[in-house]
Amino acid sequence: VHAKHEEKTESKSVYREYNREFLLPKGTNPESIKSSLSKDGVLTVEAPLPALGYGEKLIPIAHQ
C-alpha cells in the first residue's frame, strides 16, 4: 500500500506519504484485492482468501 497527499496554499505546504507492505497467502489473486477509504480517513484493504481445496467431509456425531 502506497499513498501520498500533498496540499499547497499561499501560507503553507503539507506533504504526507505512507508505505506499508503485506505478504498475501499463497494463491491470492492480486486482481481481486479491493480497497476503500472512509470519511474518517481509515483505509481498508480486502483480499479474498484462496479456496482451501478440501472437498466435502462427513464428520460423525457421537450421541451420548
UniProtKB/TrEMBL annotation:
It comes from the Eukaryota. Pfam families: HSP20 (PF00011). GO terms for molecular function: unfolded protein binding. Residues 1-64 form the SHSP domain. InterPro entries: A-crystallin/Hsp20_dom, Alpha-crystallin/sHSP_animal, HSP20-like_chaperone. CDD domains: metazoan_ACD. Belongs to the small heat shock protein (HSP20) family. This is SHSP domain-containing protein. It comes from Bracon brevicornis.
